[in-house]
Design a protein that fits this description.
Elongation Factor Tu (Ef-tu), domain 3; SH3 type barrels; six-stranded antiparallel β-barrel; six-stranded mixed β-sheet; elongated
Length: about 160
């Protein structure tokens, strides 16, 4: 079973065992559903979501069978994962995390390897590409992505004039 990182438990909320999770996962609505199984920590302890709500910048959940803060303290500062199959991705869908480490090509020229995808404010994200000539920053935008081939581990970008020198 392949697990995908979705966030980190950063605190509790109240005395009834509600957990605060920081997550920048792109498919939050597929993860935090009542009844979904999540996996917590390096041990990948399986738990079921009993309730969910979004509050400020946090994803707030309670776990089935837990109703007291003292029962969930063991999960503080632990990473949260979900089984990839739970996300229901089709064959042509991918996650941002799938793109890390892929070779990037633009107009048949190798530009480098995706080292990360970062937020640049608002809804804008940027590919950080490590190339032979240093770091390239390219907008992570569907308009610039011609093809993603996970099997060949490569991304083909549609470059516009002035995007790279």
């Amino acid at each position: 079973m392949e697990l995908v990182y979705v966030g980190k438990i950063v605190n509790t909320h109240g005395i009834k065992g509600e957990l605060r999770i920081i997550s920048k996962f792109e498919r939050i609505s597929d993860v935090f559903k009542v009844g979904n199984e999540i996996y917590i920590g390096e041990e990948h302890i399986k738990e079921k979501i009993a309730s969910y709500r979004h509050h400020k910048q946090f994803e707030m959940i309670t776990l089935l069978g837990y109703n007291n803060i003292n029962q969930v303290l063991k999960y503080l500062q632990k990473d949260v994962y979900i089984a990839r199959k739970t996300l229901g991705l089709s064959e042509d869908e991918y996650l941002e995390s799938d793109l890390i480490g892929l070779d990037v090509f633009g107009q048949d020229k190798h530009l480098g390897v995706v080292s990360s995808i970062t937020d640049s404010g608002g809804d804008n994200k940027i590919f950080v590409i490590q190339g032979d000539d240093g770091e390239l920053l390219i907008p992570y935008n569907k308009d610039f992505i011609e093809n993603v081939d996970l099997l060949s581990k490569k991304i083909e970008l549609k470059l516009i004039e002035g995007m790279i020198e």
